[in-house]
Amino acid sequence: MITISLCMIVRDESLVLDRCLESICGIVDEIIIVDTGSKDNTKEIAHKYTDKIYDFQWVDNFSKARNYSFSLATKEYILWLDADDIILKEDIAKLKEIKTMLNPTIDVVMMKYNLMIKNGEPTMSFYRERLLKRTRNYKWFSPVHEYIDFRGAKTFTSDVCITHKKEHAKSERNLKILEKQFDNNKELSPRNWFYYARELYYHGKYDKAIIYYEKFLNTEGEYLSNYIDSCIDLSKIYTAKNMPKKSFKTLLRSLEYDLPRAEICCYIGYYYKKNNQYNKAIFYFDLATRLVKPEKRWGFIIHDFWDFIPYTELSICNYKLGNIKQAIINNDIALKYKPKHTVLLNNKKFFNQIISKKNYANVSIQS
Known about the structure:
The chain is α/β, with parallel strands linked by helices. It has 14 helices and 11 strands.
């Protein structure tokens, strides 16, 4: 059986820290909390679970704080969590099995990260390097959107999920940290060009975001998913700037990097739908439903694009073409994924009404 140190960095996390530590305290052998300047009762909450609480002066660099927390670990493997993460009971059972059965030659255990939980279901998932062999001395890099370089490691992709339940509103913190790098005349890495562009996009600074997305897209050797996400984000920016053709061409540009993914198919479908080219839209929405969701892929997966969204859009497009029977079938399939969705339920009532009346005139579906 392996031993595990839980390493966390926290600051003003009194709303969520108890929930996080309660979910994991029974399985780890050591809990290390590094506080970067809390002004609430975060430390008092942490003391319920551990005496290993340390202070770290915040220097606008998440990697430095995380590396300090890792340096304090004494067990065989290090598990890291954020304060607004939890591990559900079913995943605790899986983690216990890993703790008992893990081959000691494994350096890194990958775990799925479920984000933005709605109605008990994640809307987006991706894999992170969660459990790391301490003696390999892995380090964190980048001041924000930090990561561990584990190239060459012997990895194991587990079915354990970490669930992220964010409580804080989005701030400009990450954007300010990245801009501080420029102020200090520090050049960002290509990876951080992507994240800087994304922060600019999130804060509505579209023209500057375009520059850094393009700068990133002109690089090679970074994560494949980041190139595709750059194309998607750029497409959204051009849509917001009322440049639909450029938005569409940017979606097609993503196909230079990989086979079409469901979200790309759906965005292409949206373009054709908006232009009343419903047959073309149907082709791409239908393609999205036929693709196999890559459950073990390490990139981002937004789940709705693989089922709920394309079936909903297929229903609308088929209705627009007068294919009422197929529209009903698609709406019913979409309902299987979201049985309580108000629009789908209203559309089902609508379809039932027009079937009973056999009168398709002067009616319209919700979209």
